[in-house]
Specification:
The protein is mainly alpha-helical. The protein has helices spanning about 5-20, 25-35, 45-65, 70-95, 105-125, 135-145, 155-165, 170-195, 205-230, 235-250.
Length: about 250
């Protein structure tokens, strides 16, 4: 395997492993490209392939675990649309004004900040907010989800923080973050697709797709199975270490 091929395998593995756990897929991919490709902007071709593979893995997992039962779809489809509106509006504004803000320093700060929020949402009962209505929880989580536009903060992490603050346990906070990932990843996929002048599916994109798909499915399966037992502290520690290393490197 050539060095070039190894890069694409790593790209897929990082996307698949980090997309659905609270450590930020975009932040990790930005780090990979900055260090190994000296790229300080997004690669829409890679992202499109990776997002499509992530989406398929997510849908397969939810389908295999009976989350697409008619009663479940009826209970959640409308509220997921409403919860996605804040991110849709903010994403439109960012694209309209062509706002680009990718840097190792920013990823370092958002990684640490997200870790602190995740820790307190998971550990401290006094920080819990009394929100009983599930629809309200999802809509408020939709505003939290907007934090993911900051590279390194994490979409899954922002949703999990919200649901933990609103009193959901670790497993259901994680499952609900998967639900909220469906429309967001779909939007990301189609948004990136529009940015491409042409789309040629070569072996490099095949490597990204295959590794992302299998890494994402396995990660979701293991993450949901063990999260109530291990908690979010390992992710908090990891995020702080990554953040400190990035800030030390940039300064």
């Amino acid at each position: 395997m050539t060095n070039n091929s190894i890069f694409f395998v790593f790209y897929g593995l990082i996307q698949g492993i980090t997309e659905f756990i609270p450590i930020s897929s975009s932040g990790h991919l930005n780090i990979l490209e900055i260090f190994f490709r000296s790229i300080g902007s997004r690669n829409y071709l890679y992202e499109t392939s990776a997002h499509f593979a992530s989406l398929l893995a997510l849908l397969l997992y939810l389908s295999a675990n009976k989350h697409f039962a008619k009663s479940n779809i009826k209970a959640y489809w409308k509220i997921l649309i409403y919860a996605t509106v804040p991110a849709l509006i903010l994403g439109f504004i960012i694209k309209f004004y062509d706002i680009v803000y990718i840097s190792l320093e920013l990823i370092g700060y958002t990684s640490i900040t997200g870790a602190i929020f995740l820790y307190f949402s998971d550990k401290e009962k006094k920080f819990k907010l009394k929100v009983k209505n599930k629809n309200t929880k999802f809509i408020l989580a939709g505003f939290f989800q907007c934090l993911a536009f900051l590279p390194g903060f994490s979409r899954a992490g922002s949703c999990i923080i919200a649901f933990r603050l609103f009193g959901e346990n670790r497993k259901y906070s994680s499952i609900y973050s998967l639900y909220m990932g469906i429309p967001i990843i779909c939007l990301s996929f189609f948004s990136n697709l529009k940015e491409l002048d042409n789309f040629i599916f070569d072996k490099n994109l095949a490597l990204i797709f295959i590794t992302t798909f299998f890494a994402a499915y396995i990660t979701i399966f293991v993450f949901i199975k063990v999260i109530n037992k291990i908690g979010f502290t390992p992710f908090v520690i990891y995020r702080i270490i990554i953040g400190i290393l990035l800030l030390a490197y940039t300064y």
